[in-house]
Amino acid sequence: MVARKTLCLRRLGGDRAGELRVGRFFANPKVTTAKIIDSWGTQTGTAAAGRHVLAIQDTSEVIWPTSPQRRRGLGLVGKGNAYGVLVHAMLAADAGTGACLGLVGGAVWNRPGKVTTTIYERALEDRESIRWQRTAEQAKHILAPAARVTVVADREADIYAQWATVPDSGFDLLSRASNDRRLADGGMLFAAADRFALADTRTIKVASHAPGQPRRRAEMALRFGEVEIARPRDPHHHPFAPTVRLRVIDVREIAPPRGSEPLHWRLLTTHTITDAAQAWQAVGWYQARWIIEQLFRVMKSQGLDLENSQMTSAERLVKLAATAVKAACIDMQLVQERDGKHGSDATAVFTGSEIDTLGALNPTLAGSTPRQRNPHPPSSLAWAAWIIARLGGWNCYYKPPGPITMRRGMEQFYAIHRGRTLEMKPQQDVRIP
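User: That's the sequence. What structure does it adopt?
Assistant: Structure tokens below.
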């Protein structure tokens, strides 16, 4: 998928026999979605070692065009007027540089049907929202080598059970407030945030939600303080602590463009916030959420085009979506690290045998001028990306290699690596009767 930038079985297989092999792989009952997701974070812990990691999680809907005669077993998504699957993923990024370190964990599922009971009638473990808490708990194991972890999420992750159980030493949460919660002193969260003193103002760049629109600058007013939120009255929350102490960072736009709704973020975190510098730093970590939005774009119509897959059953589409998330992450890492600014290691993307093949190829791709020699440290991801770009036809001049060049290079590389692997396998004697 990474090499050919496609999820089309015909193109993945290369020919009819290859297409059938790919189809049989996803149809095999031993190939499960859970096993595919378990493999997401195999190399991420090593890449995260010693770093402060932002563990960014979010959910995306993958919608397939369907007709009543061809639902393929897909469940309802969106507002109940479309059919598809849901992908929840957590991605690790370096807190200082924004470098994508790989996937951590998550879930991919197909809704079996409409839920007839209200959310308050269901136990917490039976609600879809439990994915936020479970994925955060997964991160504790996979990102154990990290020096510090901050789980970053949007409003859907504002769940009391998560605030009460997940934070730990060196493991913090940061998410946007969803509900105007009751406080231990009898007040309300939003009103308390409004009363915080103005701490600072700053102009920041914010992404536009309109497709193709550039980022704009917004002048923001900053307030911050500490609150103690009260446990919800829902009886399912009774096992948790009656209150949780959190820090609130309130940032709101001072003078939005005419006709635009002013930006207003109320961020909740377990981090200690004692001054404006720490508050702005947390705002920057929250803004890093765009990295996982980019992952979903690469996975879907702006990259691998997952929603155009013609697989015939929901079960296989769920497996395909789980695989596509990993392919999209690798694609992002290669393009992101082409200039070496993040200092990522090649093991974040490539296996040991693949790195050996890259090392064998490196001297064969060097040119006669200094600009045509690999300038990056051996076994770094930038070093590997330079080799892939050269295989894809990049001449080391003009603009940096883009996704198309990387796609061509990965196609070439995997063909060479397969051939080299076959050549290195010991040959068995063939006895002729």
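The radius of gyration is 24 Å.
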